[in-house]
Design goal:
CATH architecture: 2-Layer Sandwich
Distance between the termini: 20 Å
Number of strands: 5
CATH topology: TATA-Binding Protein
Oligomer: single chain
Helix content: 25-40%
Structural class: alpha+beta
Strand content: 35-45%
CATH superfamily: XisI-like
Largest sheet: 5 strands, mixed
Shape: globular
CATH class: Alpha Beta
Length: about 110
């Protein structure tokens, strides 16, 4: 697949996956779930912003980047197996990097090392 077409396909898949995940509303607090898409630099996030009782909530539950034609999972603080979901949507395992794992452990993930 041509590099530009591949990158655009990956962007579309990432956006669909994160937009779907962002529809889930927390069962507590006054919390808004937002998607943050920076297609120019290829950074994609799902963040929670709001209040639970007297506590301010701000957290990034999912962060994906496209780097060197691969999707890097930088953060996954969800129960969702994002790597598996990406694979099911047609992304080859050798184009998925579990970036939050230390480099020496990535070889055991079944996905790309870097």
């Amino acid at each position: 697949m041509e590099t530009l077409a591949k990158r655009q396909a990956y962007r579309t898949i990432i956006k669909q996956l994160l937009e779907h995940y962002a529809t889930y509303k927390p069962s507590y607090g006054d919390i808004e779930i937002q998607t943050v898409f920076d297609a120019e630099h290829d950074h994609y996030q799902v963040v929670a912003i709001g209040w639970h009782k007297k506590n301010r909530i701000y957290s990034c539950s999912i962060h994906l980047d496209i780097k060197d034609e691969k999707i890097w999972i930088q953060v996954n603080d969800t129960e969702l197996d994002i790597a598996q979901k990406l694979f099911e949507k047609g992304i080859p395992k050798d184009d998925i990097v579990i970036g939050f794992h230390p480099p020496h452990l990535r070889q055991h993930s079944g996905y790309e090392i870097s």
